[in-house]
Design brief:
Helix 6 runs antiparallel to helix 7 and helix 10 (about 355-365) packs across helix 11 (about 390-400). This protein is α/β, with parallel strands linked by helices. It contains 11 helices and 18 strands. The strands form 4 sheets. It has an 8-stranded mixed β-sheet, with helices on both faces. The structure holds adenosine-5'-diphosphate (ADP), aspartic acid and magnesium ion. Magnesium ion (MG) binds near residues 9, 156, 159 and 214.
């Protein structure tokens, strides 16, 4: 029995018309004699009635109430509704199918509500259902803890559900269907001439995904990589094959192709920069600031420490919490809200001189002020004002010629 896992995101299942495209892809796979696990996200986007953010808008817990457990109960309904709706339509199309919740599909998770980790996927129920059905539709993004609590696994988590099922069932492939034609050199909503990439390695795309390319969730890529299951990211609305994600791009004669210098440009908006200056002992201040942030569960980025102060960033949603903590400690932070992080990602930049200089020049020529920067062997990050985000991403896409070629040389 050959198994294929197909995942359809929120916009792909949004309307009956969109779901006709979904059903076409399912039929195409069934003709090839696959047994299919179809993982679905909640229907559509806010303000659609059963979209995750719409469901979240139904409740308004008091500020000091720990509501995480009930929010998971609420959010899990979105994907369950979607699974039932699609299964019903498949049955109307004379396709044998059954809908399962994440828990019924065998997802055992930790009990970290809203961000649970998958501990195990037991595919026994799915295999049993394959005796009577060609398609098992699974509600993505959710599971169950050992004590029977319903959990969700973090926003965008249906990709991860699909990858975990692909590994548990030793699927031939995991296909992630979405509203764009695969993984592109930048978000096509920001860069009009972004190009789709035909083949990328797990590592390349994992970096891009961690830096904000939300077309695929980075945990999904990591899970598929561990299980060595190839992934395809492709459009629900076409027959094009999109992007293949695999362990290496192999030349015909069996040689590995070297990494691309720059795979793509990614971005994350809604970031706040915080500066804390001190005239007294900077050592005390540094350790107090970062210890307090860690204890409050605030993840910090772009950390710059100097003898006179520290500069770092936090997600915009945590700005007030961070300021309160610093003020209680007696510091007077300087806050720059409305920042964005732009990343040039590519494993092949390691050791290549001039990459940073190109980035600085391109941004300077485009009139974009760099507020901070950082780099690793595969990524160069710059912090810019959110108003400059589109200009910055386009300038970097242009300077590395990503709309023309993007194959390694
Ligand atoms: P789904 O609901 O199918 O999971 P998402 O909205 O999570 O879809 O992801 C698809 C979106 O990701 C695209 O519409 C696109 O705007 C965005 N995106 C960001 N970076 C990239 C990229 N490098 N390549 C393709 N799409 C990207
Ligand atoms: N519906 C969930 C979300 O909006 C999970 C997903 O779409 O992958 O985050
Ligand atoms: Mg997604």
């Amino acid at each position: 029995m050959q198994v294929l896992v197909q995942k359809f995101g929120g916009t792909s299942v949004q309307t009956a018309e969109n779901r006709e495209h979904v059903i076409k892809h399912i039929k195409d796979a069934l003709v090839k004699d696959y047994k299919l696990v179809v993982v679905v996200s909640a229907l559509g986007r806010k303000p659609d009635p059963y979209a995750t953010d719409t469901l979240l808008g139904l409740v308004d817990y008091p500020a000091n109430k720990n509501s995480a457990r009930e929010l998971d109960l609420l959010m899990s309904c979105g994907e369950i509704i979607s699974a039932v709706v699609l299964s019903n339509e498949l049955q109307k199309n004379h396709i044998s199918s059954v809908a399962l919740t994440g828990a019924q599909a065998g997802f055992l998770t930790t009990e970290d509500f809203n961000k649970a980790k998958i501990k195990e996927v037991n595919p026994a129920r799915i295999l049993k259902e394959f005796e009577k059905n060609d398609v098992v539709v699974v509600a993505g993004f959710q599971g169950e803890s050992e004590t029977g609590e319903i959990t969700t696994i973090g926003r965008g988590g249906s990709d991860t559900s699909a990858a975990a099922l692909g590994v548990a069932l030793a699927a031939e492939r995991i296909e992630i269907f979405t509203d764009v034609n695969g993984i592109m050199t930048a978000d096509p909503r920001v860069v009009k001439n972004a190009r789709p990439l035909n083949v990328v390695t797990y590592n390349e795309i994992c970096n891009l995904a961690y830096q904000g390319a939300k077309v695929i969730h980075p945990r999904a890529v990591e899970i598929a990589m561990q299980g060595k299951i190839p992934m395809r990211i492709r459009s629900t609305y076409s027959d094009e094959l999109g992007t293949l994600v695999t362990s290496s791009r192999i030349l015909e004669m069996g040689m590995d192709i070297p990494d691309r210098m720059i795979t793509g440009i990614a971005h994350i908006s809604s970031i706040t920069q915080i500066k804390v200056q001190t005239k007294e002992s900077a050592y005390r201040m540094q350790s107090e600031v970062f210890k307090a942030m860690a204890e409050a569960g605030i993840s910090v980025d772009f950390i710059n420490i100097s003898p006179t102060g520290v500069v770092y960033t936090v997600p915009a949603a945590l700005t007030e919490k961070a300021i309160d903590i610093l003020e209680v400690l007696g510091f007077h932070p300087e806050i720059t809200e409305g920042c964005a992080k732009v990343s040039a990602v590519g494993a092949g930049m390691n050791g290549v001189p001039g990459v940073a200089s190109k980035i600085v020049q391109a941004l300077t020529n485009a009139g974009v002020q760099i507020l901070q920067s950082a780099d690793s062997h595969t990524t160069i990050w710059v912090l810019v004002r959110a108003n400059d985000l589109i200009t910055a991403v386009n300038a970097l896409h242009e300077v590395f010629g990503l709309s023309e070629i993007n194959e390694p040389v």
